[in-house]
Specification:
single chain; 5-stranded mixed beta sheet; alpha+beta; 22 helices; 6-stranded antiparallel beta sheet
Length: 622
């Protein structure tokens, strides 16, 4: 009966006290000592059977857990770091310990380095280097055999290291076990630890060792998959690079063929710009040395071209790509590209296409300049005639201008360029190139270049010509400018005024500068040759003179009296025999005609000088 009771308890998995209850119940009915001894033997046997079954159950659960861990490790994972974290997490779950962690060996450094830890409360363990033979990790990494200690700091079998001990102490670890991660050779160590003293059982150490074998294989497979993924990614990148290179080469060949076709059939720079713009997108333009657009992609707005002109002048910044058009030592202009996206970088193919376009445009510009040089003599002869007052010159002007494409009805600036005598070689050629590029005329008189260029702003044109000629002749060029004029009969007077400005700049020791009479003011009048005195008076006081002539007023007389009396309203009124308020009203009218700053210190001297010249001219005419 007792055996059946113990069997039922074993089957039911009853707790330990129930076995003692059965023994007490049966021992009370024992008839003899021999029967009591037999009952105790049955109790002992039942407990042994219970322990055996419990161990088998635990071992079975561990095996199932190990199989589950193996399944997770076998999943397709190519990230080595993710595999390491999974291994450590599963190790902690298998042993039910406080902490689990893993190190990987560095054979060259003869150490094993901490990589992952689960259950940590500080960061002291990170990047800890454990030399071979030191501590548990160094011992297992060096020997390849598991090692366990119930109390780390009191275990005399271990060689200690201050840095390693500090990380162990920071995590309050006491009992620790380490097993090797072996894949042919030892590649690292898998640890488990508790914060309380006590040994790890042989079953726990064996279980951790079995899991470490699976983990080492998983690490190796993850590394291989990672390397394969990297190799595949590298091949894909190489294939994509090869594809892009092939496309770029095809584009480059097509661009080359197109460029050669344009050159061979005598095309112009506009065709080059249009064709290259179609390939690149964005806006493409070519500017001459004066930053004037020569050719541009269709649809480019005036604002965009104005901004690109600044880039052609060396202010490209990060918005534009610019390159000079060069033939030998000559600068023929600038090619500027505004990419379709302002933040886009210029790729190698884009750069090659732009450079090819610049070369072809340079050739076409050079061809054009050579043709222009052949026409320069004819244009120079026409300009010489225009600058010489002769009625016969103007009578044949229309026919001669039509033959060379000169349009005298346009507004033109007259520019006189002076350079030192020893530097005049090439002056005529450079002047001819600049004039032809702007549909103008040029000649050389008394060692100075004279240019007549379409322009509404003589001052700006003069500065541009001075800068361009100085750059090409590599010596300071001083420029006087006048105009604008739209009647060929006014060219001789404008030439004389521009020449006077150039001479004034030289007397002011402003070699290399450019100016008009407006820029120089009375200084130009005093230092020039006197030819611009009338123009100075008209420019300074013209509105007041015309007002007096048209309305029979006395504004000029009032101005003369105002300055003659030291700018006194009262004294002026007394001398003119009028009321001071009338003087004030007349001066207000002058202000409206000449501008609010006519009486400022900067303009007073010019106004008084113009008044004296006007009076002198009037007195001499009597």
């Amino acid at each position: 009966m007792n055996g059946h009771s113990y069997l039922r308890l074993l089957v039911d998995g009853a707790p330990l006290p129930h076995y003692d209850d059965v023994l007490r119940a049966t021992a009370a009915d024992a008839a003899s000592p021999a029967e009591l001894e037999e009952l105790q033997a049955e109790h002992t046997l039942a407990l042994r059977l219970r322990d055996m079954l419990e161990k088998q159950r635990v071992r079975g659960e561990q095996q199932r857990a190990l199989v589950e861990c193996a399944k997770e490790l076998a999943e397709d994972r190519s990230d080595p770091d993710a595999i390491l974290h999974l291994i450590v997490s599963q190790a902690q779950r298998l042993l039910g310990c406080d902490m689990a962690y893993l190190s990987l060996n560095d054979d060259e450094d003869r150490s094993t380095r901490m990589r992952v830890m689960v259950g940590a409360t500080s960061s002291a363990w990170k990047d800890v280097r454990i030399p071979f033979g030191v501590g548990i990790g160094g011992r297992v990494a060096a020997t390849g055999t598991p090692f366990s200690t119930p109390d780390y700091f009191s275990d005399e079998r271990l060689a200690h290291d201050p840095a390693v001990d500090a990380s162990v102490r920071a995590e309050r670890q006491v009992s620790i076990v380490g097993v090797p991660l072996r894949n042919g050779t030892v590649i690292g160590v898998l640890f488990a630890s508790n914060r309380t003293p006590g040994p790890f059982s042989h079953d726990a150490i064996a279980l951790l060792g079995s899991f470490a074998a699976l983990a080492a294989s998983a690490i190796d497979q993850a590394r291989q998959r990672h390397e394969q993924d990297q190799a595949i990614a590298a091949l894909r990148q190489a294939n994509e690079a090869l594809r892009r290179h092939t496309v770029e080469e095809e584009r480059a060949v097509a661009a080359h063929d197109q460029s050669m076709d344009i050159v061979l059939r005598g095309g112009g720079v506009q065709e080059v710009v249009t064709a290259t713009g179609d390939q690149l997108g964005g806006v493409l333009a070519i500017f001459d040395e004066l930053q004037t657009p020569v050719a541009w992609t269709p649809g480019a707005s005036g604002e965009v071209l104005k901004s690109m002109a600044a880039a052609a002048d060396g202010q490209a910044g990060e918005l534009y790509w610019a390159t000079d058009l060069v033939a030998g030592s000559e600068n023929l202009g600038t090619l500027v590209w505004a990419p379709p996206e302002t933040s886009a970088e210029v790729g190698d193919l884009d750069r090659r296409l732009l450079e090819r376009a610049a070369v072809v445009a340079s050739l076409l510009q050079l061809f054009g300049r050579n043709l222009a040089a052949a026409e320069a003599r004819v244009r120079g002869e026409l300009l010489d005639d225009l600058l010489t007052p002769d009625a016969r010159t103007y009578s044949s002007l229309a026919e001669r201008a039509l033959r060379i494409g000169y349009q005298p009805q346009k507004r033109h600036a007259v520019v006189v360029a002076h350079i030192r005598a020893e530097k005049r070689r090439g002056l005529a050629s450079v002047a001819s190139d600049l004039a032809a590029a702007r549909d103008g005329l040029s000649t050389v008189r008394e060692g100075r270049a004279v240019l007549v260029i379409p322009s509404d702003d003589p001052s700006l044109t003069g500065r541009q010509v001075a800068r361009s000629m100085t750059m090409r002749l590599r010596s300071p060029v001083t420029v006087g400018a006048a105009g604008p004029v739209d009647d060929p009969a006014d060219l001789p007077a404008a030439y004389a005024e521009a020449l006077a400005c150039a001479q004034a700049l030289l007397r002011l020791e402003r070699e290399g500068a450019a100016a008009t009479t407006d820029d120089l003011g009375y200084a130009g009048l005093l230092l020039g040759d006197g030819a611009s005195a009338t123009r100075f008076v008209v420019r300074t006081l013209g509105p007041v003179i015309r007002h007096d002539e048209q309305r029979s007023t006395m504004l000029m007389e009032t101005l003369e009296t105002y300055f003659a009396t030291g700018q006194s309203l009262v004294a002026s009124a007394k001398r003119l025999h009028i009321h001071p308020n009338t003087v004030t009203q007349r001066l207000d009218r002058v202000k409206r005609l000449l501008g609010v700053d006519w009486n400022s210190p900067d303009h007073t001297l010019e106004v008084q000088l113009a008044l004296r010249l006007h009076r002198l001219t009037r007195d001499l005419a009597r």
